[in-house]
């Protein structure tokens, strides 16, 4: 019996190399692809385009601006215009993300160079609301010098993608200026416009949304984002006074009568921006 077992083991020993050579060796499975970890501090930059509006509401009165027999004691003007603001923008951002499974909450702040401005001339009839006379034309301009935001981000991650909504504080420097030029200008009625000019740093709000993608095997990500920004209103006092003729109805112009104008121009500033950015996340 022992002799038979020895013969069998010897046979297996000679056959094993040939058997093993015919065996298929499976490669080890690839390591699992892990989803990126978004949690942590990051900084980055962005470029984009903005298009906004500066809407003026103009209201002023002028004591005895237009006088004739039985004429009104004052003239008043209420009008509005719209300036479109557009320009390329660029800036930097920084933030911090907290992540729980596929859910993300973050806080981000950014600062943008803007310089968006626009101007318009309203060449229609500007009516004196007290007597129906044409007072002249409006020329105005608005500008967003720079702006920034401080926003919360709330999103959902999937593989290497982050989809989020965002909103919070917006702030920036805005400017508005313009004039109302009188319809009549001659030797007797000189060109005395009513003018305004104001600049202020304003705070408002912003809402938007975006998507971000983590670049494989790196700490970098890229994103595209849209924001709507409302920077509120600035109120500028008017100065100057419109010159007008006085005299009998249909009669000659006896001379100009110019008295100071009083009132305000309220300019509401809003903006839309779309931008492409990159972020670097620290471990």
Characterise the protein shown here:
The protein is mainly β. It has one domain. Helices cover 7% and strands 64% of the residues. It has 1 helix and 11 strands. The protein has one helix at residues 2-21, and strands at 40-63, 74-100, 103-122, 136-158, 161-182, 194-214, 220-237, 239-240, 244-245, 256-257, 261-281. The strands form 2 sheets. The chain has an 8-stranded antiparallel beta barrel. It has a two-stranded antiparallel ribbon with strand order 9-10. A hairpin with a 5-residue loop joins β6 (194-214) and β7. It is rod-shaped, with a radius of gyration of 36 Å. It starts with a helix and ends with a strand. The relative contact order is 0.21. The model is unreliable at 65-71 and 185-189 (pLDDT under 50).
Q: What's the arrangement of secondary structure elements?
A:
Blueprint: H1 2-21, E1 40-63, E2 74-100, E3 103-122, E4 136-158, E5 161-182, E6 194-214, E7 220-237, E8 239-240, E9 244-245, E10 256-257, E11 261-281
Antiparallel strand pairs: 1-2, 1-11, 2-3, 3-4, 4-5, 5-6, 6-7, 6-8, 7-11, 9-10
Could you give a quick summary of the protein structure above?
By secondary structure, the protein is mostly beta strands. It has one helix spanning 2-21; strands at residues 40-63, 74-100, 103-122, 136-158, 161-182, 194-214, 220-237, 239-240, 244-245, 256-257, 261-281.
